[in-house]
Amino acid sequence: MPIYQFKNTYIISTDGDDLIIIDQHAAHERILYDRLSGKSSPEPSQPLLMPETIGLDQKESAILNENIDYLKELGFDLEGFGSNTYILRSVPHLAVKTNIKQMILDIVSELQNAGKTVQLETKQENLRKLIACHSAIKAGDKLTIDEINQLIKDLYSTTNPTTCPHGRPTMIRLAESEFIKRFGR
Ligand SMILES: [Zn+2]
Question: Which residues are found with C-beta within 5 Å of the ion, ligand 1?
Fold first, then answer.
């Protein structure tokens, strides 16, 4: 049961007898990462009202091209248009509210940093983390009570509700016994 959104960043809630403090960004990251990783029902693709044109240099273009099939699987409809230019027509539905162009540029630089040494599986995992991070609710975003309820419900139905895909905690749990001890009751 959510009680309060603190500094538009943390959700104060309860879980049984415990008080929990949820980091809304980390929690949403976990939810979106799990959705992108779901094998059975891939995230639907959403056409953009205005397709984005993305200009890259030769190296960036080559690396994007190498990974374009996996990006298609994730819901990005990217098409080469002349030399080193791409048209982006669709994005994963969950990413529709983000700064799309910046996300693509960050994806390209992530792929460049990974280079050839990183295993394919790890590389793809890192892309899903990046997309989840870009698309997640930010610290400072005001949420409605319905959005908070949905966030908590979705978080609890993920594979690992207590950590974000980067391994940081999504929540701090305070048992009632902790209060009893500290208040000296
Ligand atoms: Zn994270």
Answer: 29, 164, 166
